[in-house]
């Protein structure tokens, strides 16, 4: 599904990704871990197409097509979802209305009509039940006064509704309490299927107490320097990152 080869990228002439390779197949959950400043968020942003970065080398293929020249919206329409792509507060626009608009925009980009209201409601009902999201939440104004957990709930709801091929969840280190971690983990566990793939980026092992990844990768200094199964996350929890840095010397 996703194939990244020799990705090199910089920002303001500072090199951040230094030849990164990653392959993700449908049905897989990958965790990307690594110390602060390693380039994890940069990688997520570049896959999603954020324009602050300069890709100087390498390729990003989604289902065999190079997406590295596509605009962020086009990548989203092709099934790439990045959490917190829409972190803005929009007073007066509810969680539900926002996602309805996003879905219909995606359909429009593919030359499809709006989703019939009846189908949309059915989908909203099914997904919110699956994720145990109550109706009151769905009618709240987008991100307005949301707690950390509510922001996560909204993100996971967006992911559920948009049904991306590839979801990237960048769990930045701050403000993730156990409730928020559980919301993310339950969402990923319920939404993963043989047809989609999830990349979970985290600085902390504890998220992976709830999501069992098929693969764990360590990103260090702009490259994936070690890959393994879920047990690698436990090893990192116990030993930190220094032993990996030493292995590299
Ligand atoms: P991580 O998510 O692994 O903590 P980041 O991808 O956020 O790492 O950052 C990698 C490196 O790139 C860091 O040294 C960071 O300071 C730098 N960096 C990231 N974004 C920017 C930016 N917008 N401007 C300047 N430097 C940046
Ligand atoms: Mg960071
Ligand atoms: Mg980060």
TrEMBL record:
Keywords: ATP-binding, Nucleotide-binding
Stated family: Belongs to the ABC transporter superfamily. Ycf16 family.
SUPFAM superfamilies in alphabetical order: P-loop containing nucleoside triphosphate hydrolases
Superkingdom of the source species: Bacteria
NCBIfam families, per the entry: sufC
Residue ranges annotated for the ABC transporter domain, each copy included: 2-246
Species of the source: Polaribacter marinaquae
Alphabetical list of PANTHER family matching this protein: ABC TRANSPORTER I FAMILY MEMBER 6, CHLOROPLASTIC
Protein name in the entry: Fe-S cluster assembly ATPase SufC
Alphabetized InterPro entries for the sequence: AAA+_ATPase, ABC_transporter-like_ATP-bd, FeS-cluster_ATPase_SufC, P-loop_NTPase
Gene: sufC
Pfam family, one: ABC_tran
